[in-house]
Design brief:
The protein is α/β, with parallel strands linked by helices. The chain is about 40% helix and about 20% strand. It has two domains: about 120 residues, 3-Layer(aba) Sandwich (Rossmann fold), CATH 3.40.50.2300; about 90 residues, Arc Repressor Mutant, subunit A. It is built from eight helices and twelve strands. The strands form three sheets. It has a five-stranded parallel β-sheet, sandwiched between helices. Strands 6-7-8-9 form a four-stranded antiparallel β-sheet, covered by helices on one side. β4, α4 and β5 form a beta-alpha-beta unit. The longest helix has 17 residues.
Length: about 230
């Protein structure tokens, strides 16, 4: 059973081949490009379910490719998983801030990559509630129009910032967000961001979540996410 098209943008032929074989085994239809320029054209043409994007590409690098995908209204909502050999925090943060949804570092297991693909696609299918509505996340229910949060049926007393922070993270369980992304979405792009300002809000929110505090996870060197629940 075909599950959809996955675009692989990777200049190393052996990696493209390994990923292609694994994706075909899982029922996906892989399409490949060996450069950033070809990759952007391929994504626009094929409109895949997801893009696997190497950051270290000749010519147009992965950051430029991700930016091009996000700036095109026909491709901006397609999930992107970065593949990086560096594993450096700065690269990961830059990629996430440009709109990538997840990342894997080389060397990697093809099975792990497939697992990440499935996870990102599951998130995308259920995590676009919009700015208004109801978010249900495990024991937490967030009623956005009424500005009301309950935990196991008990109302939580949250500040306005804590409310926005919790709604932002739990609307996309499993997605990793940098501190800058959190501030841009919760406080607005003109707010002066410091790592401390985000960390303080997270500490306060975790205290109010009590025994469920571990649902808000720290991703070391990157930022925070709401843990993906079973």
């Amino acid at each position: 059973m075909q599950k959809g098209t996955i675009c692989i943008i990777e200049d190393e032929e052996d990696i493209r081949e390994i990923l292609t074989i694994q994706l075909e085994r899982e029922g996906y239809t892989p399409v490949t490009a060996d450069s950033g320029e070809k990759g952007v054209d391929l994504v626009r043409e094929k409109q895949p379910q997801l893009v696997l994007l190497d950051l270290m590409l000749p010519g147009m690098d992965g950051f430029d490719v991700c930016r091009a995908i996000r700036q095109d209204k026909t491709t901006r909502d397609i999930p992107v998983i970065m593949i990086t050999a560096r594993g450096e925090e700065a690269d990961i943060i830059t990629g996430l801030e440009m709109g990538a949804d997840d990342y894997v570092t080389k060397p990697f297991s093809p099975r792990v990559v497939v697992s990440r693909i499935k996870s990102v696609l599951r998130r995308g299918a259920r995590s676009h509630p919009g700015s208004e509505g109801l978010i249900e996340y495990g024991p937490v229910t967030i009623d956005q129009p009424r500005h009301l949060v309950t935990l196991d049926g008990r109302e939580l007393d949250l500040t306005a910032t804590e409310f926005k922070l919790l709604a932002f993270l739990t609307s996309r369980p499993g997605w990793v967000f940098t501190r800058q992304q959190i501030v841009d979405n919760v406080r607005g792009e003109d707010y002066a961001v410091t790592e401390r300002s985000v960390d303080v809000q997270i500490v306060g929110l975790r205290k109010k979540l009590g025994e469920h505090a571990d649902h808000i996870e720290t991703v070391r060197g990157v930022g925070y996410r709401a843990r993906e629940l079973d």
